[in-house]
Each structure stands twice: as C-alpha cells, then as structure tokens.
Design brief:
The protein is an alpha+beta fold. It contains 2 helices and 5 strands, in the order ββββαβα. The protein has a 5-stranded antiparallel β-sheet with strand order 4-3-2-1-5, sandwiched between helices. The protein starts with 8 loop residues before the first strand and ends with a helix.
Amino acid sequence: MGLRASENEAKILAYSPGRYPMLVVELSPGDLRTLYYETGYDTERTKPVTKEWIRENAIGRHSFVEVDPPRDVPVSTLRHYVNREVLGEF
C-alpha cells in the first residue's frame, strides 16, 4: 500500500457520524481504505474498500457524510482534522 506521492497525503472522501468517526480515504490512486479512530487513523491498520462499498454501504446504509470536494490532508494530521473538522473540537 503506497501513500499519495504529494507529501504522504490522504484524500478524505467520507466520514462516519458520531463520537468515534471512521474515515474513508484514498491513500494512492485507486487505493480506497477505511481508517479508524481506535487505531489513531493508522494507515497500516486499515480495511480496503471499493467505490461501490462507499456508495452503497457507507453512505447508503450507514449515513457516512461525503466530503465534497474531497480534502487532501497530510496523513500525520488525520486525527487533528477529525478533531477540528468532524468533531468540532479545538
């Protein structure tokens, strides 16, 4: 699993609502993954997903919030992004 060439960024596509959000990200072109609050959004502890899964399962069944347009965020700041942008904490 390779990270995005531009400064080890993750493209955030969606997140789950709630206190412990999951992220759906693209780590490199076509490499879609879920990252978990419980793992500190560790890119080594992910689950691969497909575009269909995002559309039908995450957004369709579990009310994930689509990030439109997707956000490129450095992998090292994913937890900070969730705290600030998703949870509204500072």
